[in-house]
């Protein structure tokens, strides 16, 4: 049976994607090999699932529906840029996301707990809410790139989380192709 690379995420509004595109345009001038996230592909990952047997994905969709039924839409705010793992050897450039009421963290914990019951491995790394802007592919000038990226004044955007998305990811030479497999609208039961 086929396995599908997939992850659970939330979408961000067009103005956040446009702001990320503007930062990317500035940094593209540097002589660093970076795989820039296509603005349309920018998302906030709640959980990376990896290769999942197609037959198990229906269950993941049901889990998301059950969680979303008990979760009202909530707000997040874009924050400053950051890098993984360090500014001296940057691999991933990202924009942070502020979770003022801790609702995102609670949602991620719920997703982890629910999926663990169906045999999905728990994420061992601490959750860092972020939007990946680019992945650094070469070491040359990478420190300079990180310095400039971290010095950028990224606008603070408040946005509403309204859906959980189960996304399929097909890795292509020209970048990942993302296809939503299931969308669960947040809707606190009255
Ligand atoms: P990233 O943006 O920090 O790289 C699809 O690959 C999404 O799943 C990305 O947002 C990616 O986060 C996230 N992800 C988490 N763990 C991953 C892993 N081990 N391999 C690939 N992607 C991972």
Brief account:
By secondary structure, this protein is α+β, with helices and mostly antiparallel strands. It is built from 4 helices and 9 strands, in the order βαββαββαβαβββ.
Give the total of domains: 1
Structural class computed from helices and strand pairing? alpha+beta
Largest sheet: 5 strands, antiparallel
Q: Superfamily at the CATH H level?
A: Cyclic phosphodiesterase
Q: Order of strands side by side in the largest beta sheet?
A: 2-6-5-4-7
Main attributes?
binds adenosine-2'-monophosphate, five-stranded antiparallel beta sheet, alpha+beta, 190 residues, four-stranded antiparallel beta sheet, Cyclic Phosphodiesterase, Chain: A
Structure description:
The protein is of the alpha+beta class and 190 residues long. The protein has a single domain, classed as Alpha-Beta Complex (Cyclic Phosphodiesterase, Chain: A). The protein has helices at residues 14-27, 54-69, 103-116, 142-151, and strands at residues 3-11, 34-36, 43-53, 74-85, 90-98, 130-136, 158-161, 163-172, 175-185. The strands form two sheets. Strands 2-6-5-4-7 form a five-stranded antiparallel sheet. The radius of gyration is 17 Å and the shape is globular. The protein binds adenosine-2'-monophosphate. Residues 7, 45, 48, 92, 132, 169 line the site of adenosine-2'-monophosphate.
